[in-house]
Give the backbone structure.
Amino acid sequence: MPAWAGPVTRYVAEGLLTTVTLAAVSVVVSVLLGTALGALLTLPSRPVRIVVRAHVEIWRGLPIIVTLFFIFFVLPVIGLGFGTFVAAAIGLCLWGSANVAEIVRGAVQSVPRGQADAAAALGFPWPGRMRHVIFPQAARRVLPPLVGLVVNLVQQTSLAAVIGLLDVLQASQRSIERLTLSSGETHAVPILGSVLAVFFVICLPLTILSRRLERRLH
């Protein structure tokens, strides 16, 4: 093993831990918040739907990198400053939850309306209809696109490097710069190749799972 490999590996491993933590937080919050927002989009109350729809369209429409810059550089001007990890997590969760909300809304509205009408006739309130009748049927339709979105969200964590978060990509870039200054050689191919391999190993099983779920539930 080359002399430079040990320190670089440890440094990149720290960035990988940050990336995995960021991905886990973003996925969990996005799924939970997005499921709630998607359910609210099916409420009979028009004002509630308008507010939630505005939230979904804003954060789905903005590129994630713009959202990250807004949270990290603009909000501190009005006294809302965040660290790089928190700012990245907020930006990814806003984008992720908005997309999950749209997936959930589509799945819920794809359930035949007669199911909800029958539950209402039996005396179920809206929360009861959603919990016991609609969501169990919609879950089968949600899973394939949801797993695909999780893959996309994991990949988007690499954008956190633009605001200075020491994730696996940022750690790799700094390692390349340090090696270039110290030895004149970048070693970019093995370092960035290892980063590519990490994302491939994480995302490929999820992609395969999404395709199998889609075929099985079709």
